[in-house]
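Phosphoethanolamine transferase (Escherichia coli), 442 aa
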Amino acid sequence: MIQNIFETNQNEALAYLSLPIIVWVTIAGFIPAILLFFVEIEYEEKWFKGILTRALSMFASLIVIAVIAALYYQDYVSVGRNNSNLQREIVPANFVNSTVKYVYNRYLAEPIPFTTLGDDAKRDTNQSKPTLMFLVVGETARGKNFSMNGYEKDTNPFTSKSGGVISFNDVRSCGTATAVSVPCMFSNMGRKEFDDNRARNSEGLLDVLQKTGISIFWKENDGGCKGVCDRVPNIEIEPKDHPKFCDKNTCYDEVVLQDLDSEIAQMKGDKLVGFHLIGSHGPTYYKRYPDAHRQFTPDCPRSDIENCTDEELTNTYDNTIRYTDFVIGEMIAKLKTYEDKYNTALLYVSDHGESLGELGLYLHGTPYQFAPDDQTRVPMQVWMSPGFIKEKGVDMACLQQKAADTRYSHDNIFSSVLGIWDVKTSVYEKGLDIFSQCRNVQ
C-alpha cells in the first residue's frame, strides 16, 4: 500500500476526492486544528521536573508491560512464532516501517546491476503464416464477477458470443496492487520469490520475445506500465488527443482500438500488441463505462462508494466488467479481420481483484497474507483463431478442461506466453506453461 501511495498518479489520487470527504476533513480536521492553535499551553516552570515526570511514567508503563508479558510468555511466544505477519498489523509502526523500507530500497540502497534475460532465446519461425497476438492486461477485475465463471449476471455477453473464448475459472494474482502484480507477471520470478528491486533492474517477458524477432508494441491506458514496456516501442494514451473517448483525466478503454490498424501495419514480421486497460479501476467505477453500457441499474455515480448501497455498488462495478468484455470482444473481432494474413490469438488477464464492502473492505491493496479471495482471484481468457490452433497444435477441449479444473496464477504467464510462441530459452519452465499439456508439438 505504501508503494501504491508513492507510485500513484495525479488522476488516481483525484479520484478519491469528493465533496463529503472535503467537508469531513474541514470540520473534523482543519477547524479543530485552528482552534487548538490558539489554545494557550501552560508549561511547568521547571522543565527538568516535567521531563523527569514523563520519563518515570513511561518507565513505569514499560515495567507493567514487561510483567504482563512475562506472566503470559508461553501464550505470546507461540502466537508470535506461528504468525510472524502480525507485526505488520501494529499501527502506526507498520506504516512507518513500510515507508522507511520503501524509501531505502527505492532511493537509498546501492543500485543492483541490470540483468539481461533470455539471451539464449530462439524461436522456430517455420510457419504457414506470421502470428499476430494481443496480450491484454486488465485492471481490478474479479474472477467471480465473470458470467463465464458462473456469475449470475451476464457480464460476458460479448466474449461469450465471440466463439472459442476459454475462461479460466481459478487464477490467482501475484499481488493485490498494480505496482506489484504487473511487474511480477512479466518477470520470471514467482509470487513468493518476487522482488521489486530485482524486477526493475532486469529484463522481462517482452524483452525476451523481442530478442527472438517478434515485433512488440504496447498501448498504455492505465497510467503506466510499471516498467514492463520500457524497452519496447510504446505509447501512453493522452486524453487530449481523443476527446470522443476521454475526459480531462482518463479514457474509456475503447480508445486503445483507435489507430490500431495503422499501428499494426507499421510493425514487421510476427507481432505482439500489448494493452494495459484501466478496466474497473475505482473508486470512480462509474467513469469506466459510457452511458451506452450502463446495463445494470441502479448504479452509483459517486467516488465515496461507502455511501452506495450494496446493490448500487455491485451494479456499478459489474458495468465496468461488462464494458471490459465489450472491449475484449471488439479486439477479437479485430483479430478475425486479420485471419487471412495472420494466425491470431488473444490472452487477457487482470492484475488483481477488488473488494466491494465484503468484510468491511473496499478497493484493493490489502497485504497478501490477509487479502480476501475477492482481491486475489482474477479473470483470464484465451481466444485463438482456427489457423493459430492448427499451427500450434492446441487441443482446445483439453485446454477447456484445464481452465475449468486447474488453479493457475500469474506465475504461469511468463512461461505460457513464451511457450505458445515456441520460444526456446533457459528461463522457460515447461511446468508453468498452461498450454504445454494441451499441445501436439512434434
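The mean pLDDT is 91. The chain has two domains: 47-108, 122-438. ok done for today
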